[in-house]
Amino acid sequence: MHLQVEVIRKNELYENMKVEADKCLAHVERVANEKAEFEAQIYTKVSGGLKFQEIKIERAS
User: Fold this and answer.
1) Which domain of life is it from (predicted)?
2) For 7-31, what is each residue's pLDDT tens digit?
3) From CA 32, how far away is CA 40, in angstroms rounded?
4) How far is C-alpha 53 from the geometric centre of its chain's CA atoms?
5) Cα 21–23–27 angle (5° rounding)?
């Protein structure tokens, strides 16, 4: 009987860890997507700023 209780307890712990691992994976994926989105926005802003500076320099010449 003691062994059966231990097996049940370990199965419950395993299931809980699996749920937490899935939550962590979802969080990591969300953060990675947010990072990629942020980098794309920054790239767009920086390249737009550089293009603006290039136009200013061309006009000044």
Assistant:
1) Eukaryota
2) 999 999 999 999 999 999 999 999 9
3) 12
4) 33
5) 115
